[in-house]
Every structure is written in structure tokens, then in C-alpha cells.
Amino acid sequence: MQIFGTNLGTVSNIDGYYTVYNVRAGVYDVKFSLLGYKTVLMKNVTINADMRTRIDISMEQTSVELGVVEIVSQKPLIQKDQPSTAFSIGEVKLDKLPVTTFQEVLSLQPGVTLEGNVRGGKTNEVIYLIDGIPVQDFVGGGLGAELPKSSIGGMTIYTGGFEAEYGNAMSAVINVITKGGENIHRFALRFEKDNWIPSKLNKQVDKHNELELSASGPIISNELFYLSAVTLRVSNTRWWQDMDNYFSSPNNKELSGMSKLEYTVSQSIRLTAQGLYSYHDWRDYEYSWRYNLDGLPERQKFSVRGVLSLSHTLSDRTAYTLSFTHFYLQNRFGETTKQDLEITPYQYDLFLRYVTRGNKSWWANVQQLMQVFKGDISSQVDESQFFKAGFEFNFYDIFYDLVKFEPQRTYFGKPIENAPLLNYSNLYEYFPRSGSVYIQDKIRFSLDGSILSLGLRWDFLDPRAERPVVEFIPNTNNEFKQKIVGYKKASIKQQFSPRIAFAAPMGPNSMFFMNFGYYFQYPLFEYLYTGVNPPQI
């Protein structure tokens, strides 16, 4: 069998069983040939990320040379060997969806809100992966970088029962797979806007404009491939009618780009270098500041990521991948420097509903550097058993400089005028570490096609920090005063998480599955270290 557009292929055994590893997510044409039989060409075979694709064919025996039998592959309605709640979106479907980001694709799935809440969980309980590697804001939560739509080859969304390979998530795991280069040069230009009709006639628009350029193809045929895409997105957000009174258009600007080089050393070895850039400049909208929007601070997010990876197929049944990632993310609040920030009480309207004068006393410079070493090995032990294991070690550098003053409020949330502002400022730098090791085994029973998945995952987190030791000193009138008498080193936290799942087909278009697992998530570093410097007790 041969996969068109790649140099991948294999030969089946005497029973017709075959396996092919390291096939990127995408849509392919696959050719099957055997002496004495008609050649079969199966078109539009969809390869989903993190899932095995099973292709069964029947070949017609012949003694003379005949034409090719062409078959159009149909994606099964149900992935019967997937004992979890998962949704796969391929490249073809992505091109048809009226979306511009993969977060919008997520919001179209069952159990997901427009804001990104999955199964009732918080938005920061979702972990985002690009090619299996985290691209997360581990300080404040959420996605750490954007990705051009034309660089996405597919994505898999796990909303429950994910296997031991995935951790540090409570609600969902989003794994986005990027495209790779082909032996054909492709160039694309896409432009979108939502205000073709003048805004005087149609005010239900965000003044959204988006331009995307992409190119891919071979540098050296069958050996070295490139892919590059860049997206510029500007808008005035849904609040533009209020924003236009204070700011020039546009007030929301995003730029993201991705470049990728793939070098096929041999049929079994592939090297990949990937670079990702993302920049976002915007202003928040708060209803209580509606008549003083220029008092809200400007916000900026900048990130850059580089990945080097090696994929090596050891045999027709075993393959491994190794990767190193360098990811830098910076979040900024405020247009002035820290020294120029004015700390003054706000002025309100008569009913204390709106802030009418004053600047929000917030300024921040948050920088995080993450280096990731990751490795995975997978093996089709035999026709009924698939084994996978891997590790991931993360090294962080967290710098957090925040100036934050907030007004005192009553029990009902009304601000107290002329009262001293509350100081929530923090300044620290820490170098935490985390990591994980997992093993999982998936067994297929040939009698009825049932699947049993067994897995175990070990996670650890080393905060590399000290916490204050507080004593209560007796005071007058049976009261106690808190006093810091020293500091104690934080211990290393670790957790073993079992994962067990079972799936059984119940007919051609239905299946039954059940799973058990222990799932947990590290706290955001903002929550972990806030209040340590200066100590707040």
C-alpha cells in the first residue's frame, strides 16, 4: 500500500494485515496493489490526530491487466475503538466551517459554550496543545498563542475520559495538528470582513477585517518541505459604538504567524522545525466604565514559540518521537511605566453605578518562559494490542510584576467613596518545574471488536518557593495578632492517576463505552504565588 503525497507505504503480511506510523493528520489518497488483483485507489481518507485509522478493502482477483478500481472513503459515523468522549475535525470540514480560529470550532461542539466553557467547567480548566505540546498561559490561564487557520490540518477535542497520555486538565483537552508541506506548491489568500454594507445602514457589525496569506511546498522534492502562514485580524469588537467615542479605529489588533520546515532524512526518520508568533493589542470593555472608557488600561499579549522534533520509525510496528520546545509569553497592562502610574480614587455618578473620572490603577508586566522536553513511543505489539508510553518535563521562569489598587466596597458591591484603596500588588520571580510519565495499553478483542484501555499516569509539581510560617500572638480582649516567624520550603507535589476504559460495538452505527479515571490540574501560578511577596496574611 502507498499513501500519495508522502513517501510512506508498507507491505502487508500473508493475512493482509498492515500498519503505517507517523502519518500526519490530513486527507490522503491511498493505493493498494497486489499481483493478480485489480489495483484499488481509495480517495479522501481522513487521518485524525491521536487516533488510529482502520482501512479494510476487498480486492478483485484477475489474470489480466485491468483499470484501477476507485473508492471514495467515507468517514465512519462512530469511532468504535475510542472509549472516550472525543470529536475530530479534519481539514476538509475545517475549510467548510464559517470560523476563523480553532476556538470558534471548539464552541460549535456539544457541551461547549461560546466563551469556551466545557461541560460546565471553567475556561482555564481546558488545556490547549499544538502538535501535542502545551501552548498555555500557565500564569493567568487560557490560550497562550493564536494560530492561522490555514496552518491547521485537524484537531481533536476530548471532553471526557481522556487517556493517560493527557493530564493537567479538568474539562477538556484540545489538540491542534498543524499541516505539513507537500510535493506541490500551494499559495492562498483569504480576506474577510463583516461590514460590506456602510455602518450607517447596518450597525450589527464588529467592523471585523481579516487577511490571511499562506504558502507551502517542496524546497527539495520528496525531502525538504516548507509551510508558512500569517494572519492579520483587526476589529472594533462588539462594543464599537461606545469605543468610537474614545479611541480611533481599530481598537482590537491581532497578528499571528506560523512557519514550519520538515526534512525527511529517510523513509523512517523525519526532522521538523516549527516557529510560532502571536501578538494581540486590545482594550477591555467594562460596563461600569462606559462613560470613562479611556480610563481603562491598554492590554497587550506577545508570544513566540520554537519547536524541534524528531520522528523515527524503528520498524513497521514501533515508532517514537522526541521534541524540545521553547515558549515565551508576555502580558502587559497599561500604557505608562510603573513609576508614572497615578494611584488616585475614582469619581462616580450620583448612584455609584458608573466611574465618571479617573484611571484604573492597574499596571502589570507578566513574563513566562517555558522549556519542554517531551518523548513518546508507540508500538503495535500484535494485531490486537497497542502500547504507548511517554514523558514530559517542563521548566518555567515566571516573572510577575503587578500594581493593582481597588476601591473598598460594601456588602452589596457598591464602592465606598473617599475610602483608602486596597493594595493587591505583587512582585516575584520563581522557577518551578513539573513533569509527567505515562503508560497505556489498548487491547482489542477479536471476538466482537471490544476495546479495553488500561493506563497509569504520574505527575509532579515542584513550586521551588517558600511559604510564610504564621503564629497567632495573643492580644487584648481575647484577640490574636498574626505574625510571620519564618519561612518553610514548599514540598514537591505528586499524583498517580489510573485510567481504565472499555468500549464495545452495539451494531453498525452504535457503541457502548465506560471509563474510570483520576483527573486533576495544577493551580495557575498566579494563584500559587500571589500573596507571597509582599506576604499577605
CATH homology group of the largest domain? TonB-dependent receptor, plug domain
What oligomeric arrangement do these chains adopt? single chain
Percentage of residues in DSSP E strands:
over 45%
The helical percent reads under 10%
Keywords:
15-stranded antiparallel β-sheet; globular; mainly beta; 537 residues; 5-stranded mixed β-sheet; Ferric Hydroxamate Uptake Protein, Chain A, domain 1; Immunoglobulin-like
Nutshell version of this structure?
This protein is 4% helix and 49% strand.
Helices, strands, pairings?
Layout (H helix, E strand, L loop, with lengths): L1 E2 L22 E7 L7 E8 L21 E4 L12 E6 H6 L5 H6 L18 E5 L2 E2 L17 E9 L11 E7 L7 E8 L15 E12 L3 E12 L4 H4 L8 E13 L4 E15 L14 E16 L4 E16 L13 E2 L6 E3 L4 E21 L2 E22 L15 E2 L2 E5 L2 E12 L6 E12 L3 E9 L5 E10 L3 E15 L2 E8 L7 H5 L8
Parallel strand pairs: 3-4, 6-9
Antiparallel strand pairs: 1-2, 2-3, 5-8, 6-7, 8-9, 10-11, 11-12, 12-13, 13-14, 14-15, 15-16, 16-19, 17-18, 19-20, 20-21, 20-22, 20-23, 23-24, 24-27, 25-26, 27-28
Characterization of this structure:
With 537 residues, the chain is mainly β. The chain folds into 2 domains: 2-72, Immunoglobulin-like; 85-408, TonB-dependent receptor, plug domain (Ferric Hydroxamate Uptake Protein, Chain A, domain 1, Beta Complex). The chain contains 4 helices and 28 strands. It has helices at 91-96, 102-107, 240-243, 525-529, and strands spanning 2-3, 26-32, 40-47, 69-72, 85-90, 126-130, 133-134, 152-160, 172-178, 186-193, 209-220, 224-235, 252-264, 269-283, 298-313, 318-333, 347-348, 355-357, 362-382, 385-406, 422-423, 426-430, 433-444, 451-462, 466-474, 480-489, 493-507, 510-517. The strands form 5 sheets. It has a 15-stranded antiparallel β-sheet that branches. A 5-stranded mixed β-sheet has the order 5-8-9-6-7. Strands 1-2-3-4 form a 4-stranded mixed β-sheet, with no helix packed on it. The longest helix is centred in the first third of the chain and has 6 residues, at 91-96. The model has no long low-confidence stretch (mean pLDDT 87).
